[in-house]
Amino acid sequence: MNILVVRNDKLGDFITALPAMYVLKHHNKNNKIVACISKINEALARKCDFIDEVIIDNPESSVEELSLEMKKHNIDASITLFSNTRVAFAQFLARIPIRIAPATKIAQFFYTSRVKQKRSEVKMAEFEYNLELTKVLFPDINLEYPQPLLVLDDTAKVYDVFRINNDFQKDVMAFHIGFGGSSDANWNTAEYESLIRSVLKEKKYQVVLTFGPDEKKLYEEMQIRLRGLGVVFYFSLDGLIYFAKLISKFKLFVSTSTGTYHLASLVGTPTLTFFGDSRFASASRWKGIGDENLQTHFMLPSDDIKRDDIFEEVKLKLITN
């Protein structure tokens, strides 16, 4: 069976779809998984051996063009993990016989199977809701998947070169401090500086700060704040796969709940992560797909006093890790 799986949004959202693609592929050795994704996730998708073919959804292309691309793959069934009217109508025009999706808004009327999940109630995590949708197509499907789900080659070589170039003698604790969500779901730069200085004082870890290509100002600010302390500042220009290989060898990855957090969990890196203090933004909804024993979650309240208490708890956790 040729199965189209649609998750055409950001990095973290795409990673929450990967367990569903894995179990669909392994339910029957003859299943072919076609992933409809955004361009930013193409390199990662092509590294997953349970994804057979990739459709890049270019938002600038017409619905008809997307539909024609789907037709080329002779799709027997589709599972749309997050839907909008555009991708729903494209599948309808492509005449895919079985079209499964959550029952949301107008888009639901273009599907043959509409599943009421009420994800806003957060009865399970996002990736678990995605896995549940696969049971509509295969009621007896095994929802188990390996952890880590993605094991990349030559990671040891990549890390060794990075370690030698930066004269590392200790394990690495990495901080990705970019504000991927609302401001109350992360610390400010002064607070991160305080946390990092506390870790450095213990002299147990080398500290690396990682920055995405669009975080140049943050990169420059933190260089000033932490000048002369031996911190390594990694400005990511080498692509997502290189970054995934690199962080897979770190001992801890500290961040807010962003795509890089989900990437770290995907490749099996221990994480310490900050979430917003609401059901929708919580760890209950957005926990990583990796081993839960390797994940430490902190909910950051908006109340200043409670936030100060959590800050001290985080600091203690980092210096005793």
Q: Which CATH class of the largest domain applies here?
A: Alpha Beta
Query: CATH homologous superfamily of the largest domain?
Result: Glycogen Phosphorylase B
Q: Domains counted in the coordinates: how many?
A: 2
Please state roughly what percent of the residues sit in beta strands, choosing from under 5%, 5-15%, 15-25%, 25-35%, 35-45% or over 45%: 15-25%
The biggest sheet amounts to: 6 strands, parallel
Query: Over all CA atoms, what is the radius of gyration?
Result: 21 Å
Q: What CATH architecture of the largest domain do you see?
A: 3-Layer(aba) Sandwich
Shape: globular
Helical/strand content category: alpha/beta
State the helix count: 12
Question: Major sheet: order of its strands?
Answer: 3-2-1-4-5-6
Instruction: Calculate the mean pLDDT score and round it.
Output: 95
Write the layout of secondary structure elements.
Elements: E1 2-6, H1 11-27, E2 32-37, H2 42-45, E3 53-56, H3 63-71, E4 77-80, H4 85-93, E5 98-102, E6 113-115, H5 126-137, H6 155-165, E7 172-176, H7 189-202, E8 206-211, H8 216-225, E9 232-235, H9 240-247, E10 252-256, H10 259-266, E11 271-276, H11 283-286, E12 295-300, H12 304-320
Parallel strand pairs: 1-2, 1-4, 2-3, 4-5, 5-6, 7-8, 7-10, 8-9, 10-11, 11-12
Helix pairs in contact: 1-5, 1-10, 3-4, 6-9, 7-12
